[in-house]
Amino acid sequence: MIVCSGSVMTALLIWKAGLPSAVILRTVSEILWGMGAFFAGRRSGLHGRRQGAAEGALCGAILFLIWLCGVVIFKEAPKSMLLQGIMMPLTGAAGGILGVNTRLKKPPD
User: What's the pTM?
Assistant: First the structure.
């Protein structure tokens, strides 16, 4: 949800401002994928309440594989593939740790 809404808002900003779209869109896309991994890891940490780093890193790795499938399907060759491969599991692990250590008034659904 966050990735989709952020992508739409960025596309509208680029379209209205007439900015050089390729560089800005790629950078914002990488940031949004990282945020998606963070919040997926946090969600998994909230539900699991244990092993937040491992579950969050797994969420980030799964999102990286989804991103990689999109790269292969659209036949792009991003220079930031190694950066994404490192960033997404790390941000997912950080979100998982935060999710496990968050105090809740009521348990999640």
Answer: 0.76
